[in-house]
Design a protein that fits this description.
Blueprint lengths: L2 E3 L24 E5 L6 E6 L10 E3 L1 E6 L13 E5 L13 E2 L9 E8 L11 E8 L3 H7 L8 E4 L16 E4 L2 E9 L9 E5 L4 H10 L1
Protein name: Peptidase S1 domain-containing protein
Keywords: Disulfide bond, Signal
GO molecular function, one term: serine-type endopeptidase activity
Length: about 220
């Protein structure tokens, strides 16, 4: 089963600008895209995907729009918009977050949550929500970590670890910095929440495209 985590870049979600401190994210409820069985379902307000609860909202999608210049070989422009089949009910468990319109400043700490498996079984949902607070690396540190690989619009976190963790995590974790969505995980070299090298699609270069898609559909 392929699973991915998405924050709602859907319809009006990006127009609400709110300011959150890192401490506000103590028990996050997330959006979980369950791709098996097909067709995939979007579960809103999820804390533990392996257990369904009455507070969840389960919806389908009406439109999927990948970024036109996405390159599957280099993973550049790794971004996609998903429109819900109907409007979500905003409440204590389902909310919105603003997207980044400008680059991240070097002193901002980022909150990176995702799920992982206690023991992965074929087509099982993850059962543990975990997170880490980290500072993004500088442009030069990021280029060094990429090891001469040419990449644009990438944010880097973490560092090379002496041993590769066998922990299995859900991909596409968000990086929330200063109360805004600044990045979405594209690929990593180990466990993101243990501090391994992780490479995120930076959101701010795509802000105009995101708003254009929202206004068009």
């Amino acid at each position: 089963m392929e699973s991915c985590l998405i924050f709602i870049l859907l319809r009006a979600a990006v127009v609400l600008a709110q300011t959150y401190e890192t401490e506000d994210f103590t028990v996050p409820y997330m959006v979980y895209l369950q791709s098996s069985p097909e067709p995939f379902k979007i579960r809103l307000g999820v804390y533990q995907p392996s257990i369904k609860n009455k507070k969840e909202q389960i919806l389908s999608n009406s439109l999927i729009v990948p970024y036109p210049q996405f390159n599957a070989h280099t993973l550049e422009n790794d971004l996609m918009m998903i429109k819900l089949s109907k409007a979500a009910a905003v409440n204590t468990y389902v909310g919105t977050i603003a997207i980044a319109m400008e680059p991240l400043t070097s002193n901002d700490s980022c909150f990176i949550p995702t799920w992982r498996w206690n023991a992965y079984r074929n087509q099982s949902d993850p059962d543990i929500l975990t997170w880490i607070n980290q500072h993004a690396l500088t442009h030069y540190e990021c280029q060094y970590m990429l090891n001469q690989r040419v990449a644009v619009n990438i944010m880097c976190f973490g560092q090379p670890l002496s041993s590769i963790s066998e922990i299995m995590e859900v991909s596409a974790a968000p990086a929330i910095c200063g109360g805004r969505l600044h990045g979405i995980l594209s690929w990593s070299k180990g466990s993101v929440t243990l501090g391994s090298e992780a490479f995120f699609t930076a959101i701010h270069p795509y802000a105009r495209w995101i708003l254009k898609i929202i206004n068009s559909y």
